[in-house]
């Protein structure tokens, strides 16, 4: 009866301890997922996103630059270093799950002071011992800490994939900007040549008395405007080349980019897939989920720290006054002990740790939800941009055709003297603006395709990603 009463008392004490411990909030990741994208219903038949999606634009130079970025991008290198740190964190978190063993070798010589009246020879003591301690992870404090470290390591891997996807998208974006600026430069120089040709014609007419100095000044003003448009475009080429150089991790002087023009690129049509698939196709979502899981596991570990800890300790070795008899059987000693420790009063530290972990978990839940919603927004925006810029490109192409026709007619009539110079100047400026706008729209459409590939995860899947280290 006494034993039963003792057991009941212990159980009652444990129950009281558990009742007084702070608890961990449950995870609630419910996020509404649409059945289809709003903009996808208006898109044409398309091909799925490739893992090497940049090749779908048909540019060997872009492919080469992407490969250089994959090997030399400094942000990717930093992300890889973060993975190494996270792997070390796993090793550290795993250590408490194993016994801790220490060894000790000692040699001591002592002699009593003469004032004690015990004058004699010095006394030597030699010892060799080992001690071991082990905490039984009954409540899961250490195992949850290890699980958190593994989740953090997985998040670091997903972060690395996100950084790589961003770097590749930035390389493609800057490269297309170079091609667009080169196209605009070509058009600007062609228009300068055209304006120079008309300037020569008007000067000849001025000499013949069929043109005025005002007309000459007007054409000169237009020619100067077109010449002034060239330096900003040259600057754009230089700056975007420098941006590509940074992305591949090399000085600009060591990076060669030929370019050529946007007309050399293939324009792929990309399938958006289902919104539910997006949750497993974006590394940033996977990273946010892994970080959230790690925070939950941290909270569980903090909760377990409130409970009693059970530890086993042992020590054994040999000790002797003579070195030669150190390993005699009589010199041996050992001790074994078990203990249970329960925090009684810590000023609220342990409870505060749980509450803080709960707060971190709540913040990570919000961050995860925001990442998912932002992913849906990114896809919708990219789909709309691709569709509408494609439509604008067709309309702008028609503007260029009609503007070129009007300019050709006005130039011919100017030579024949049947149209005034103001009309020619207007058609000339209209054609220049139409051609320049067309190139800008083409660039925006291609950059929207880059954004769409990036928004869809660039062909990435959680199944293709590397698994966390054990």
For this entry, give a set of tags.
470 residues, alpha+beta, Outer membrane efflux proteins (OEP), elongated, disordered C terminus
Describe the structure.
The chain is of the alpha+beta class and 470 residues long. The protein has one domain (24-107, 123-455): Outer membrane efflux proteins (OEP), CATH 1.20.1600. The chain is built from ten helices and four strands. The chain has helices at residues 2-19, 60-72, 74-94, 141-208, 213-228, 230-248, 275-278, 283-304, 349-416, 421-455; strands at residues 100-110, 123-136, 309-320, 332-341. It has a four-stranded antiparallel beta sheet with strand order 1-2-3-4, with no helix packed on it. α4 runs antiparallel to α6 and α5 (213-228) runs parallel beside α10 (421-455). The protein is elongated, with a radius of gyration of 38 Å. The chain starts with a helix and ends in a 15-residue tail after the last helix. Residues 1-12 and 466-470 have low confidence and may be disordered.
């Amino acid at each position: 009866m006494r034993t039963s009463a003792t057991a009941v008392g212990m159980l009652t004490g444990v129950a009281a301890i558990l009742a007084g411990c702070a608890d961990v909030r449950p995870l609630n990741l419910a996020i509404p997922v649409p059945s289809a994208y709003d903009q996808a219903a208006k898109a044409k038949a398309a091909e799925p996103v490739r893992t090497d999606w940049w090749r779908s634009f048909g540019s060997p130079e872009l492919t080469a630059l992407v490969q250089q970025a994959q090997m030399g991008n400094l942000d990717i290198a930093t992300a890889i270093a973060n993975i190494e740190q996270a792997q070390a964190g796993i090793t550290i978190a795993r250590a408490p799950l194993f016994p801790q063993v220490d060894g000790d070798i000692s040699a001591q010589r002592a002699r009593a002071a003469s004032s004690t009246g015990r004058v004699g020879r010095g006394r030597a003591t030699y010892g060799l011992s080992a001690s071991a301690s082990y905490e039984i992870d009954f409540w899961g404090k250490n195992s949850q800490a290890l699980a958190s470290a593994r989740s953090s390591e997985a998040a670091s891997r997903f972060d690395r994939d996100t950084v790589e996807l961003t770097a590749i998208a930035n390389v493609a974006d800057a490269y297309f900007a170079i091609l667009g600026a080169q196209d605009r430069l070509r058009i600007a120089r062609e228009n300068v040549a055209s304006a120079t040709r008309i300037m020569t014609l008007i000067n000849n007419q001025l000499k013949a008395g069929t043109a005025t100095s005002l007309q000459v000044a007007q054409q000169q003003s237009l020619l100067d405007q077109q010449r002034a448009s060239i330096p900003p475009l040259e600057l754009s080429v230089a700056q975007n080349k420098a941006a590509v150089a940074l992305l591949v991790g090399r000085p600009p002087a060591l990076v060669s980019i030929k370019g050529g023009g946007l007309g050399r690129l293939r324009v792929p049509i990309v399938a958006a897939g289902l919104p539910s698939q997006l949750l497993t196709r974006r590394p940033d979502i996977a990273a946010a989920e892994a970080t959230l899981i790690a925070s939950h596991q941290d909270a569980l570990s903090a909760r377990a720290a409130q409970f009693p800890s059970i530890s086993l300790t042992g020590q054994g070795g040999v000790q002797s006054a003579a070195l030669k008899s150190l390993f005699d059987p009589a010199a041996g000693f050992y001790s074994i002990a078990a203990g249970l420790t329960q925090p009684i009063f810590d000023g609220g530290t342990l409870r505060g740790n749980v509450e803080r972990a709960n707060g971190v978990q709540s913040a990570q839940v919000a961050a995860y939800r925001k990442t998912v919603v932002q992913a849906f927004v990114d896809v919708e925006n990219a789909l709309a941009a691709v569709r509408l810029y494609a439509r604008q490109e067709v309309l702008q192409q028609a503007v260029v055709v009609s503007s070129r026709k009007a300019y050709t007619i006005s130039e011919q009539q100017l030579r024949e003297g049947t149209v005034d110079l103001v009309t020619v100047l207007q058609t000339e400026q209209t054609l220049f603006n139409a051609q320049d706008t067309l190139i800008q729209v083409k660039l925006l459409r291609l950059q929207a395709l880059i954004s769409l590939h990036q928004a869809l995860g660039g062909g990435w899947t959680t199944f293709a990603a590397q698994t966390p280290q054990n």
